[in-house]
Each structure stands twice: as C-alpha cells, then as structure tokens.
TrEMBL record:
Native organism taxonomy: Eukaryota, Metazoa, Chordata, Craniata, Vertebrata
Record-annotated Major facilitator superfamily (MFS) profile domain positions: 1-444
Membrane topology: Multi-pass membrane protein
Name of this protein: Major facilitator superfamily (MFS) profile domain-containing protein
Entry GO terms, CC: brush border membrane
Stored InterPro entries: MFS (IPR011701), MFS_dom (IPR020846), MFS_trans_sf (IPR036259), Sugar_transporter_CS (IPR005829), Tet-R_TetA/multi-R_MdtG-like (IPR001958)
Stated family: Belongs to the major facilitator superfamily.
Organism: Pavo cristatus
One Gene Ontology MF term: transmembrane transporter activity
Location relative to the cell: Membrane
Length: 444
C-alpha cells in the first residue's frame, strides 16, 4: 500500500500532463488559480514551471487533509481502541484507490486523493499501536520496522508503477493497472487487519468518552497548540515540565526535518524530469536506489540502535543533510546526484524512526494515541507546507535563471549554476537549526 502511494507521487508529473489534456472545468479553474499565484510571485508564465507548482499544491492538499484526520483518528482510537479505527481507515483507502482506478477526469482524481488523505490517519494509528508496547526496546524496533515499510514503498512502488505504465495497452489510461494493484493491496491489508491484528489498547486504559478525545483533538488542529503539546498537558497524567519541554523540542525537530524532506520529495521528480530528462522508468530506478539504501540502513543499523542512543544517531544523520542538499543542488550529472541521494537516504532512514521511538516513550498508556497523533499532525503540517513552498521557491529561482540575460563570463556562469541549486541550498539553515534543537534533548 505504501509502495503504490509512492508510485502516485513518482508519476505526478505524468499524471498532471495526461489529465490536463482532458481540460475539464475543475482542472481549468484550478489552473487559473495556479496561474494567478504564479504571476503574483513573479514566476515565468511557461507551463513547465506551473506544473511543478501544481504538483506541489496537490501534495500539500493531501497532507493538509492528513493533518486534520490524524488527531481525530488518534483521539477516537484512544476511546474505542486501535483495531476498529484502523479498519475504518483501511476501508477509506480502498474507496480512494477504487476512485483513482475509475477516474477519467481531474475532479474524480482529486476526489480520490482527498479521500486518501483523510484515510491516512492510519499511519498515526500504526505508530500508536507500536507505542502501546511496554518495552522501550520493542518500541524502537517497531518504529524501525515502520521505517522499513516506507523504504520498501520507495523501493518497489516506483519500479512497479513505471513497469505497469509501460505495459499499458492502447486506449487504456496509463495509471489504471497501478490503481487496480493498489486497490488489491489495500483489500489484502484490510483482510490482514481483520483476521490477524489484535487490539493493543486494553479497555481499562482507554479514555472515558469520545467527547473527551475530541476535546483533546481540538488542540491538535491549532499549530500553536501542536508545538506546545497542549493536548497532553491537562489532567492527572500530564507529563512533568521537563518531559513536556523535551516533547516540544522533539516535535520542533520532527517538523523541521519533515519540512525539508517533503520539499525535496515532491520536487525531486520534477527536478530530474527537467534537468536530466528522466523518464518514468528512470525515476523509478532513482526511487529504487533511495528505497533500497533506506531499507538496508534501517534493517541493518537503525533497528539495532540501543534505547537512549537515538538522539545521538539523529544528530549524525541530520549533519549528513547539509552535504546531501549541496550535492543534489549542484548536480550537473547523474553521478553527483546519486552521491547526494545516498547521503539523503541515510538521513531519511534514521531520523523519523529514532525521533518516533523517543517520543513514544512519553505519556501514559491512555495518552499514547494523542502523543503520537500530535507528532503525526506536526509531520502532516510540515508536509503540507514543504511541497508548495519548495515548488514555489525552486521554480521561481529556476525561472529567473532561464529568463535573465546572463553574460558568458566564467564568474557569471558560476553564479548561474549557484542560482539553479539555491532552492536546495536555502534549507540548510533549517537543517542546522534542527540539528541545534535536537542536541538539547539527551535521552527520552
């Protein structure tokens, strides 16, 4: 299921291009809005620049919906239990993929993405299930295994999606087979959960009512309250002042990292498509390289990190982001790009599982769902802002480079090369801030 979700992101440039040919009213109205925004910020009128912004907006919309759904599903699961709620989200994903397969207009395609975004509260539920485990060692290994699942998505999804797109028969939309395969995976996931997943939150540890959970969930919809972890500060089981400060620090580091990660994730396929003319299969191979690197690191290193050493590992991983972004930004050939992606993949394999494992150690048994819901909401907020801001900055600077009248001197050519990588150089300040803040938390 994760692998097919990555496939949708990987083929977003092709999807937008194909659906734009239909020119339905909903697509045209959205395109006019994108054109207006592009003109307002000074982006060149060429369609190739606007397509990147269009893709960033779709990615941000998906994460905004996840931002709203994660705290609500977490709050409901604290009252009703994890199992029934994750079953409902699995059924929502089935509906999303079914609509994707049936879509022949941009409006239906976007509706499928909206339902998928709402149903993505299952990710926070998975981490809450792991957080229910009593052993810190088991929680660390569980978070690492969730990271492995995402890595497999990067590894298998793009390759499968590109292959199925290439095998499309005449008269068939290129995403139909991928959508049907995603639907099959989602149905199998539902069956697996129904028959094999036990309930991990005992009745005696649940909150008294759904209303109580929704009142706490309201705090999860305010960005300021999220960064303060306000939803877990009330009642007898509220964390100590020191633990609350640690949670705030970890949450901020988590947000800033995912802001960087999502910004690159959603612009990378456009970058390689425009700079290196990558086909869908070549992009599939690129994501396969990222995914297999992440899977090896998580399976061989991340899951063996001892409890108490997670923050040290996070600091080392975040330091690697600086040369990673520089290499990706300056890459003039595939070799340099691959070197940057290698470092980037190492950081991606370590940071989220380790931060999730540390955060899962905070809060009482009845608060685990809310604590992990806050963390996932911060992640969804970062993913909502990252793609659109990164797409806007990237194409704004790239467009200015293309339209400016540069002379041919060596110094100015070097300036032009740096202009290309500016969108990837700018996040280094945020990366350094993330590193600085994460150093203040020694252990969970």
């Amino acid at each position: 299921m994760l692998s097919l979700e990555i496939k949708q992101r990987n083929n977003l440039p092709a999807s937008i291009s194909q659906l734009s040919v239909l020119q339905d009213g909903f697509y045209l109205s959205l395109q006019r809005g994108v054109d207006w925004f592009a003109a307002m910020v000074g982006m060149p009128p060429e369609r190739k620049y606007n397509s990147v912004l269009f893709g960033g907006l779709i990615g941000s919309m998906f994460s905004i919906l996840q931002f709203f759904s994660s705290p609500l599903t977490g709050a409901v699961s604290d009252c009703l239990g994890r199992r029934p709620v994750i079953l409902m989200t699995a059924m929502g994903l089935i509906a999303s993929y079914a609509l994707w397969a049936a879509s022949r207009s941009f409006g239906v395609f976007l509706l499928s993405r909206m339902i998928g975004g709402i149903s993505k509260g299952n990710v926070s539920l998975c981490t809450a299930i792991i957080a229910d485990l009593r052993s810190p060692k088991a929680r660390s290994k569980g978070m690492a295994m969730i990271g492995v699942a995402f890595s497999l998505g990067f590894t298998l999804g793009p390759m499968i999606g590109a292959y199925l797109a290439m095998e499309t028969e005449k008269g068939e939309v290129f995403y139909l087979r991928s959508a049907l395969l995603a639907l099959t995976f989602a149905a199998a996931d539902l069956i697996f959960i129904f028959f094999l997943l036990p309930e991990t939150l005992p009745k005696e540890k649940r909150v008294s009512s759904v209303t109580t959970g929704f009142q706490a969930a309201a705090d999860l919809l305010s960005p300021l309250a999220l960064f303060r972890f306000s939803a877990v500060t009330q009642g007898k089981e509220a964390p100590s002042d020191q633990n609350l400060q640690n949670l705030k620090t970890l949450g901020l580091a988590y947000f800033l990292y995912l802001f960087l990660f999502s910004g690159l994730e959603y612009t990378l396929s456009f970058l390689t498509h425009q700079r290196f003319q990558f086909s869908s299969m070549q992009q599939g191979k690129m994501f396969f390289f990222i995914g297999i690197t992440m899977a090896v690191i998580q399976g061989g290193y991340a899951r063996r990190i001892k409890p108490g050493n997670e923050i040290r590992a996070v600091k080392r991983a975040i330091l690697l982001l600086i040369p990673a972004f520089l290499l990706i930004g300056w890459a003039a050939d595939v070799t340099l790009l691959s070197a940057g992606l290698l470092l980037y993949s190492f950081a991606a394999a370590i940071v989220i599982p380790c931060l999730s494992a540390v955060v899962s150690g905070y809060g009482s048994a009845s608060q685990k769902g809310r604590v992990m819901g806050i963390l996932r909401s911060l992640g969804a907020l970062a993913r909502a802002l990252g793609p659109v801001l990164s797409a806007t900055g990237s194409e704004l600077l790239e467009g200015k480079r293309q339209t400016s009248d540069y002379s041919k001197t060596r110094w100015q050519n070097n300036c032009r090369a740096q202009h290309v990588c500016c969108p990837f150089l700018q996040p280094q300040a945020l990366g350094l801030c993330t590193f600085h803040w994460s150093t203040s938390v020694a252990t969970a």
